Amino acid sequence: MDDFYRELIIDRYKNPQMRGELDPHDYSYEDDNPLCGDEIRIDLRVDDDSRITEAAFTGKGCAISLASADLLVESIVGKTLDEIKTLSKDDIIEMLGIELGPVRLKCALLSLKVLKAGVYGLDELEEELMI
Amino acid sequence: MDLSFESTTLDIPAIRRDFPILERETAPGVQLVYLDNAATSQKPVQVIESMDFYYRQMNANIHRGIHCLAEEATVAYEDARKKIASFIGAESWRQIVFTRNTTESLNLLAYSWGRANLKAGDRILLTEMEHHSNIVPWQMLASEVGVTLDFVTLTDQGKLDQESYATLLEREPKLVSFTQMSNMLGTITPVAEMTEQAHRAGAVVIIDAAQSVPHMPVDVQELGVDFMVFSAHKMLGPTGIGILYGRKELLQEMPPFLGGGDMIKRVQLGGFTMNDLPYKFEAGTPAIAEGIGFGEAVDYLANLGMEAVHQYEQALTAYALERLEEVPGIQVYGPEAEDKGGVLSFIYDDIHTHDVAHILDSFGIAIRAGHHCAQPAHQHFDIDATSRASFYIYNVKEEVDQLIEGLYKVKEIFG
């Protein structure tokens, strides 16, 4: 097996820790990657200090996009919405621990796009997340 | 501007070695003297090899593929777009739309921007020195939509008549579209000033930079233009690829041009969602090798430095003008060397331009004969056709001397 699909990604793809829907929720957003049809929805609950108390995702997609969603959603619990704003492409790459070409990078970044667009709106998105 | 050869920072012999075609003969013992650069430039080995490398090592379709070749090709193609954006000072690569050439860029604007923004009774302001590609698409739009075209006239020197421009702006055109460098007269037009005036009059400005971007520093933000169009093949790059640059807000509001793959985000039987800029205007598989070659050409020019390119060509132009004026019977059209690029159009007594070009060709000298797709500019000066010599970075003083010798021989034959 190519180290491209390292163990963590296959594991998170097969056994996601953060999959689900939150009802009610404070934030919910869904988007897709038109290149391949992958879809991700992320739900958040936040406390009075805008700190994320619970987070979950649903969706369909490839191993890279779903593992990345699972790892991202897990990492944001306990963070404030301001801290979400500073998350970048590099954080996702570090989490996954693999090199990605431009096409697969779009798969990996879909969940971050959904998260940021859900919290701050599509107009606030950085260039690198314009998938 | 320093018009002397001595002050050039370019290593011209080294540059010439990068262009293998300059070594060829057009007949046994007759070496090529290529002076038809306003029509198309020659290509350095770097450009030729980058395209060859793409086909040998990287060939794949771009933007969709997951495999190694597709990823490498996508990166190479998109890198070229970024190089071009930076070369003309654009804020973002998303403002760089790949087209087939300058002509297609102008047609795209007429079709998309023109139809969405112009209605019967509106005016478009052009100039008498435009290339046909900046006249005919607007004439087609005029007959379809009912807009009226006005033309800025020329001075005797072959510059744009600024009084005529100011007067025609009072008619409040919606669009002003003009060249930064005439392909017949070589005239360099004051784009920044004219753009500011046009904006004050409420017009959108398109600049035809097909002859300027290859030969001088051009910065779209400094100039303040709304759209700019040019072609790769006149700037050391391949044929079949050109650029439409536009201000983001304007490009975003424009309807698409061609429909198909790559310009959509998603398609259902009931309709489609448009892709983001610039892909919205790029339907179908593009000229991938050509895009990569274009990026290489831009690297080549950027390495030389466009100030240095401009300075050297002006020195060459000044020398050529001086030498041409020595030849009895030659009349050159257009302004003095300071105000023009390396384009010299002339008539030679009553010798037909085809005969001039034909005899020069027998000495290996390639020039252009005819109206150079600028018939209205010729009509302004009441002539049918001119002979045109045009220069680029690999041309040298000795080639100008050969042109002059050739012209004396033409005279000998025609008496």
Helical content class of chain B:
40-55%
Mean pLDDT of chain A: 90
Give me the Rg of chain B, rounded.
22 Å
Query: How does CATH name the architecture of the largest domain in chain B?
Result: 3-Layer(aba) Sandwich
- Supply the CATH superfamily name of the largest domain in chain B: Type I PLP-dependent aspartate aminotransferase-like (Major domain)
Report low-confidence residues of chain A grouped into runs of 5 or more: none
- Percent of residues in beta strands of chain B: 15-25%
Overall shape of chain A: it is globular
Task: Give me the CATH fold name of chain A.
Answer: Sufe protein. Chain: A
Helix content of chain A: 40-55%
Number of H- or I-type helical stretches of chain A: 5
Number of strands of chain B: 17
How far is the N terminus from the C terminus of chain A? 29 Å
Q: How many whole angstroms does the radius of gyration of chain A measure?
A: 14 Å
Mean pLDDT of chain B: 96
Low-confidence stretches of chain B: none
Structural class by secondary-structure content of chain B: alpha/beta
Would you write up a description of this structure?
The complex is a heterodimer of chains A (131) and B (415). Chain A has 131 residues and is of the alpha+beta class. Chain A has one domain: Sufe protein. Chain: A (Alpha-Beta Complex), CATH 3.90.1010.10. In chain A, 41% of the residues lie in helices and 19% in strands. Chain A contains five helices and three strands. Chain A has a three-stranded antiparallel sheet, with helices on one face. In chain A, a hairpin with a 5-residue loop joins strand 2 and strand 3. In chain A, helix 1 packs across helix 2. The longest helix of chain A is centred in the C-terminal third of the chain and has 19 residues. The termini of chain A are far apart. Chain B is α/β, with parallel strands linked by helices and 415 residues long. Chain B has two domains: 130 residues, Aspartate Aminotransferase, domain 1; 256 residues, Aspartate Aminotransferase, domain 2 (3-Layer(aba) Sandwich). Chain B has 14 helices and 17 strands. Chain B has a seven-stranded mixed sheet, sandwiched between helices. A four-stranded antiparallel sheet of chain B has the order 13-14-17-16, with helices on one face. Chain B has a two-stranded antiparallel ribbon with strand order 1-2. In chain B, strand 7, helix 7 and strand 8 form a beta-alpha-beta unit. In chain B, helix 3 crosses helix 10, helix 4 runs parallel beside helix 5 and helix 12 crosses helix 14. Chain B is globular and about 70 Å long. The two termini of chain B are 39 Å apart. At the A-B interface, helix 5 of A face helix 3 and strand 11 of B.
